[in-house]
Amino acid sequence: MRKVTLITGGARSGKSRHALVLAQANPGRRAFVATAEPLDEEMLERIRRHREDRDPSFLTIEEPVDLGKALRSLPADVEVAVIDCLTVWLGNLMHCRRDEAGEPPELRELFALLAAPPCDLIIVTNEVGMGIVPGEAVARRFRDLAGRINQEVAKRADVVILMVSGIPIIVKQEAM
User: Fold this and answer.
1) Known catalytic residues?
2) Residue 99 pLDDT > 70, yes or no?
3) What whole-number distance in Å separates Cα of residue 32 and Cα of residue 47?
4) 8 Å CB contact between 153 and 6
5) What's domain 4-173's architecture?
6) What are the strands, taking DSSP E only, across 76-164?
7) Does this model's pTM top 0.90?
8) CB 165 within 8 A of CB 13
9) What is the strand order of the sheet 4-9 is part of?
10) Cα→Cα distances 141→86, 111, 128, 148, Å
11) In whole angstroms, what is the distance from residue 162 CA to residue 15 CA?
């Protein structure tokens, strides 16, 4: 049975690093699904650092929008995949669909894939709901959708980890 692990936490809390540690504990073939796009110098530098942190044995798939396609295209021998990260992916979706109201259909596809994942998944996301209420409508919509996605993924996950200052706190762990 495939295992889904969700790692959440604030910015720079150690989520990505912990996801890599968990993935590297799996002796099988590993993949890394990157959702970030280098839209500015800061993001380019962040992506560069993430690449340096990642073991070169990871198969890297860069897919900013079609996460379902990225997961379906994983080679059959991949045993674990890190998805980094859901909130960046959501921002990309909202940018692509900025003139559309409602929930992006890609969310339903993600939730369906979690019911029968192609391999063990370690999913990184940001906990964005603990701060102040954003002043802009689009930022409130992002925060609300991110909260809903995180809840739905956590509900389906076997393990949920909250990262606080680099320390993993197990929030949920179902017997396998």
Assistant:
1) 50
2) no
3) 13
4) yes
5) 3-Layer(aba) Sandwich (3.40)
6) 78-84, 120-124, 159-164
7) yes
8) yes
9) 59-62, 29-34, 78-84, 120-124, 4-9, 159-164, 167-173
10) 15, 19, 12, 11
11) 8
Q: What is the pLDDT of residues 18-33, one digit of tens each?
A: 999 999 999 999 999 9
Nearest to 110 by CA among 156, 79, 171: 156
What sign does the dihedral 77-26-49-165 (CA atoms) show?
positive
- Write the CB contacts of 96 (distance below 8 Å, at least 6 apart in sequence): 65
The two tokens of residue 136 are 């802009």
What are the pLDDT digits (tens) for 72-92? Answer: 999 999 999 999 999 999 999
Percentage of residues in the chain with pLDDT exceeding 70? 98
91 and 113 Cβ atoms separated by less than 8 Å: no
DSSP single-letter state for residue 103: -
